[in-house]
Design a protein that fits this description.
single chain; alpha/beta; Rossmann fold; 5-stranded parallel beta sheet; glycosyltransferase activity; TPR protein
Length: 542
């Protein structure tokens, strides 16, 4: 923030600012109060308002700080410091539209104010206005070529835009200018991971953590990198750092639940609440640990989860009760421990070689009978379930979901294949009105939960899908499942450069975007001959 007190002429203001700088905020406010109450519009009052705003901010009184800076703007509209300082505070409070207006006011009065332009660029970046953000960062660097933070942020932006070479150049310039900038090491680690230079990625994560031992993003990034490389021992341990985010869903669990978090203590005779924090796919994938928790001696294992999982897991091995989240939270104090299924691999010391078999799900026969008639109408063909879009709220949805069902059109060239849409939510309307050259039995809209989805999949021969919960569901049902994976930000669980999965070694096949692929066309081209072979083999078995 800009400091307007360096040349303050009034002794009281100087003394108050000395108190502010030493953290004596209440004393500073008491000294400047007479100036705050005056009607004077002179420099002393403007400086007093600035000190009062900073002190109020230091005391956590953001409304008072805002009031003082707005009064300062009113009585001294040509002085840019209050605009900028208020903008920084509002940006931190998430009021980015107001902050953007204030930074633009500063730049209208003083175009070469690098700090205001830097903050404006970061807002534009956050709002995904990438072209404007890039222009602002480059303007900052014209004003201040040695601004390490601007080089680092520009590099981060360019990495998002897949301009990897430029991104690396700017991040390395940032590190030359400031080798101790932990954020730049973190961004370098993320970039190296995208371009498959995994050893360099690991080194950069570790350097960031040396510089800032409590750097949660770096610890979590290193954990998923290690797990993607099959180094589960340290990976699982570091993955627990997700609980260090107090505002993140995992961090909130620690304060929401009325019992201790299980840290691997003996479970003999104990009651355990398994609390869902993660997505549907995570729950299906890690449900394999439920029987292991029971086998470890737990007297009672209850699962607190969303309704979409209730019918699917209620009859599953290792679960004594399935509760909704509200009921589970209300009853949590009656349990000895709570845990997340995704923490179970740590406590059971899972390695790539010792991954347990999936929990073999058995759909309810009545549901299978309910869903069989429309699927049976496809008799004489190999029946293939499709999912081409995942949850739009997922952080990587733009990369992992296909643009549309039309992307899959080449699959319809395979004789003897018929297609069933399992699409739920995003993509439902498209499935209901599929192109004429892509006849599609759309069942997704009628599905109410994963038990319904499981019953439909039980009647299919193959599932082809993007990285979403249906992949884990189909695989856990024992169905052949082909998963389409993006080149960018591929999830750690699918590991690196493999076309199979140790989590589902018998029936999952991975089709990855390759470096240089633009879109999904080449991936689909590679699937077509495999699908033709699958259909041919299935037809011979009929």
């Amino acid at each position: 923030m800009a400091d307007m007190t360096a040349n303050a002429p009034h002794g009281v203001v100087l003394q108050a600012d000395a108190h502010r700088q030493s953290g004596r905020f209440a004393d500073a406010l008491a000294l400047v109060q007479p100036l705050l109450d005056s009607c004077d519009a002179g420099a002393d009052r403007v400086l007093a308002l600035d000190i009062a705003a900073f002190c109020s901010l230091g005391l956590g009184r953001t409304l008072d700080a805002e009031k003082y800076w707005r009064v300062s703007i009113e009585i001294a509209p040509d002085v840019t410091g209050a605009y900028q300082n208020l903008g920084v505070m509002l940006k931190g409070l998430g009021r980015v539209a107001e902050a953007e207006m204030l930074f633009r006011e500063v730049l209208a009065k003083s175009p070469d104010t690098a700090e205001a332009r830097f903050h404006l660029a970061s807002i534009l970046f956050r709002e995904h206005r990438f072209g404007d953000a890039e222009a602002e960062y480059r303007h900052v660097l014209r004003i201040m070529p040695a601004a390490a933070e601007a080089h680092n942020n520009l590099g981060n932006l360019l990495e998002v835009l897949d301009r990897f070479s430029e991104a690396e150049s700017h991040i390395r310039i940032a590190l030359c200018l400031n080798p101790e900038l932990a954020e730049a090491h973190y961004n370098l680690a993320s970039l190296m991971r995208q371009v498959r230079r995994l050893d360099e990625s690991e080194s950069a994560y570790r350097r960031a953590l040396v510089l800032r031992p409590g750097y949660r993003d770096a610890s979590l990034g290193l954990s998923t990198l290690l797990m993607s490389m099959g180094r589960f021992d340290e990976g699982w341990e570091r993955y627990e750092s997700r609980y260090d985010y107090p505002l993140f869903v995992h961090g909130q669990s620690k304060t929401m639940l009325g019992c201790q978090q299980w840290q691997g203590e003996p479970l003999a005779g104990k009651s355990l609440l398994v609390w869902q924090e993660d997505g549907l796919g995570d729950m299906v994938q890690f449900a394999r640990y439920l029987p292991m928790l029971k086998a470890a001696g737990a007297r009672h294992v209850a699962l607190g989860c969303v309704n979409a999982l209730h019918r699917l897991l209620a009859n599953g091995s290792g679960v004594d009760a399935v509760l909704d989240h509200a009921t589970a939270q209300a009853q949590s104090a009656s349990f000895d421990y709570w845990t997340s299924l995704v923490s179970a691999p740590l406590h059971f010391r899972t390695t790539v070689e010792s991954i347990p078999e999936p929990l073999r799900l058995r759909p309810d026969q009545a549901l299978i009978d309910q869903w069989r008639p429309p699927i049976a109408a496809l008799r004489g063909a190999v029946r293939i379930g499709l999912v081409w879009k995942g949850n739009p709220k997922h952080h990587n949805d733009a990369n992992r979901s296909l643009p549309s069902v039309a992307t899959l059109a080449p699959l319809w060239s395979v004789p003897g294949a018929r297609f069933v849409s399992l699409q739920k939510g995003q993509g439902e309307e498209e499935a209901a009105y599929a192109p004429e050259n892509q006849p599609l039995l759309h069942l997704g809209s009628a599905v109410t939960d994963l038990a319904d989805s499981a019953a439909v999949i039980a009647e299919l021969d193959l599932v082809i899908c993007v990285d979403t919960s249906i992949a884990h569901l189909a695989a856990s049902l024992g169905k052949p499942c082909w998963v389409l994976l993006p080149a960018r930000d591929v999830d750690w669980r699918w590991m690196n450069d493999r076309d199979d999965s140790p989590w589902y070694p018998q029936n999952v096949r991975l089709f990855r975007q390759r470096s240089g692929d633009r879109g999904w066309a080449r991936v689909i081209e590679r699937i077509v001959p495999s699908l033709a072979a699958f259909v041919g083999a299935a037809s011979l078995l009929d």
